[in-house]
Amino acid sequence: MKSKFLNEFKTFIAKGNAIDLAIGVIMGSAFTAITNSLVNDILMPCISALFGGSDYSGLKLVLREATETSEAIVLNYGMLINAIFNFLIIALFLFFVVKVLNKMRAKKEEPAPAPAAPVKSNQEILLEEIRDLLKKN
């Protein structure tokens, strides 16, 4: 029973779908690092210069102050605003990347050539000639 399980597992791992998924996850994490750097190091400083600051992480609403017996209850809505900005900028960037990739794919895809006329065998040619002769008579 163990060997059957191991064989099935080996077959699953060796399938292209599992390998493609693993590669996609690795590439996704590498691409995430690039897009996060683009957002945090390039775009957010530009937005900050235009709008007079874009780091909203310090914005919060204190619902209850900390006491000796309980912790403070704080809503850090500034972190949410920063996350939303990051998401929108990354989504916009990915939109443009996908748009460019789709244009590149469209240029590569050429229309399929028209199917060639079927090649007739000698037997088919002879049968057509006989048919034509019979029609004349």
From TrEMBL:
Main location: membrane
Membrane topology: Multi-pass membrane protein
GO CC, one annotated term: plasma membrane
Domain of life: Bacteria
Residue spans crossing the bilayer: 12-34, 77-98
Signal peptide: none
A molecular function (GO) term: mechanosensitive monoatomic ion channel activity
Subcellular location(s) per record: Cell membrane; Membrane
Keywords in alphabetical order: Cell membrane, Ion channel, Ion transport, Membrane, Transmembrane, Transmembrane helix, Transport
Transport keyword on record: yes
Family under the similarity heading: Belongs to the MscL family.
Record HAMAP family: MscL (MF_00115)
Assembly and interaction partners: Homopentamer.
Protein name: Large-conductance mechanosensitive channel
Gene: mscL
